[in-house]
């Protein structure tokens, strides 16, 4: 692999940034200054350093994003901003995509990665990965609604698997509720449709958890960070190379 691509994949910057670093003699290969972006790195044997620090090549990257409302969970779109537009150019590694979709008006936890096997495992219906949402509701959610969720709600095209509805707050004057909803599926508009089937409406939806990952409350909407080592280790349950 070319040296400029190698260093860009290590997360040091864009290919243009890397060319500047090379010109400034900040890169060594096996202890010798290397200035050519075309140098072919031997990943098995070469030791590549930037400012004296050895660089390790990352095959996969993982970002935890607090998705804001108003952007779509896609990699490209002609008329809308996508979640990839929120990433720094140097972080938009080839092949990165969101693991699953949140509606345009839903905010909260979204994992972005270029690890297709992981995404496949996390989204597989067979794995029953729990997704937990906090929902603001127009209408008063009741114990009967909790029972319906627990039994599985009959929708037009499918019956949901048993889901958990936790009522956090009810305002009987305003006729609103704040609830947590945990589902193991990820069908189109699923939470909104399950709530609508109870005769109420979701007015705000935030994803708090997906499998072992939780929303980092210190991340402002629209911000993201790499997964911590601990978060990455928690993904080992999916049994794919990370
Ligand atoms: N359910 C929905 O209705 N919307 C989402 O964005 C996620 C789950």
From TrEMBL:
Its EC number is 5.4.99.-. It comes from the Bacteria. Keywords: Isomerase, RNA-binding. It is an enzyme of class 5 (isomerase). Pfam families: PseudoU_synth_2, S4. Belongs to the pseudouridine synthase RsuA family. This is Pseudouridine synthase. It comes from Streptococcus saliviloxodontae. The lineage of its organism: Bacteria, Bacillati, Bacillota, Bacilli, Lactobacillales.
């Amino acid at each position: 692999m070319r040296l400029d691509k190698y260093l860009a994949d290590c997360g040091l910057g864009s290919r243009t940034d890397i060319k500047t670093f090379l010109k400034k003699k900040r890169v060594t290969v096996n202890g010798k200054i290397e200035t050519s972006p075309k140098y072919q790195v031997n990943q098995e044997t070469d030791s590549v350093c930037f400012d004296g620090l050895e660089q390790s090549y990352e095959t996969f990257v993982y970002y935890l994003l607090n998705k804001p409302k108003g952007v779509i969970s896609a990699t490209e779109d002609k008329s809308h901003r996508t979640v990839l537009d929120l990433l720094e150019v140097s972080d938009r590694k080839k092949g990165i995509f969101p693991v699953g979709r949140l509606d345009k008006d839903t905010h909260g936890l979204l994992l972005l990665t270029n690890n297709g096997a992981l995404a496949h495992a996390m989204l597989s219906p067979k794995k029953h990965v729990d997704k937990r949402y906090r929902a603001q509701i127009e209408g008063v959610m009741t114990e009967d609604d909790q029972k319906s969720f627990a039994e599985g709600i009959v929708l037009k095209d499918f019956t949901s698997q048993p889901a958990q509805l936790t009522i956090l707050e009810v305002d009987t004057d305003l006729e609103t509720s704040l609830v947590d909803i945990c589902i193991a599926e990820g069908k189109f508009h699923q939470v909104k449709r399950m709530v609508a089937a109870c005769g109420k409406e979701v007015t705000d939806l935030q994803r708090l958890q997906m499998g072992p990952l939780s929303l980092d409350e210190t991340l402002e909407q629209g911000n993201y960070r790499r997964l911590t080592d601990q978060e990455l280790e928690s993904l080992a349950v999916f049994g794919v190379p990370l």
